[in-house]
Write a structure and sequence with these properties.
With 181 residues, this protein is mainly α. The protein has helices spanning 4-15, 22-29, 33-40, 43-65, 71-87, 90-98, 100-108, 114-131, 141-156, 158-162, 168-179. Keywords: DNA-binding, Transcription, Transcription regulation.
């Protein structure tokens, strides 16, 4: 995790839909670029932390919104709430539109922190529903979590991946069918 001052400045820039540029960020913080890189790692790593922070908040909100549901209904509701929240985030849409390659690399790489974090969170949700006897998947929880995340990414980032339009409803239809008993 980058130092608080660096993280806060990068988050502010991201939320203001300004490019998180390491040169101007270092100047704003009154440090040299080399110092900034030593403290944060690469630009992708810094943006990964910013995006994971926003993603984690969105995941927590999505789980709260699905309270009272169980089994596949809860899983689909959490995923739907999450995807809708991500899709409705102007700063993320701006990042995907202006820097699609960087955005996809940071958001969907297994070597980053965002996708593995979302997969782990979803795997935990699946495990809760399995342990409660409310859901009996045909795949192991880890594999199913990964597949569900990839389906969500495919529809959510369709504009950056394949010149399509993001389609949360279509993603939920596919996910719902996959989770049917």
């Amino acid at each position: 995790m980058p130092p608080d001052d660096v993280f806060d400045a990068a988050l502010r820039r991201f939320m203001e839909q300004r490019r998180v540029d390491m040169r101007s960020l270092a100047a704003e913080l009154g440090i040299g670029r080399a110092t900034l890189y030593r403290r944060t790692g690469s630009r992708d790593q810094l943006l990964g932390h910013v995006l994971w922070y926003l993603t984690e908040r969105n995941l927590q909100r999505a789980v709260r919104q699905a309270e009272g549901l169980r089994g596949a209904d809860r899983i689909v509701a959490v995923i739907g709430n999450f995807l809708a929240g991500v899709n409705d985030q102007p700063s993320l849409r701006h990042f995907l539109a202006t820097e699609p390659e960087a955005a996809l690399r940071i958001l969907t790489s297994k070597r980053g922190i965002v996708q593995p974090g979302v997969v782990a969170h979803l795997e935990g949700l699946l495990a809760e529903e399995i342990a409660a006897g409310a859901f009996a998947p045909r795949l192991d929880a880890r594999t199913l979590a990964f597949v569900l995340v990839r389906i969500g990414e495919s529809f959510l980032y369709a504009d950056a991946i394949a010149d399509g339009e993001p389609d949360v409803d279509q993603a939920l239809q596919v996910i719902g069918r996959l989770l049917e008993g």
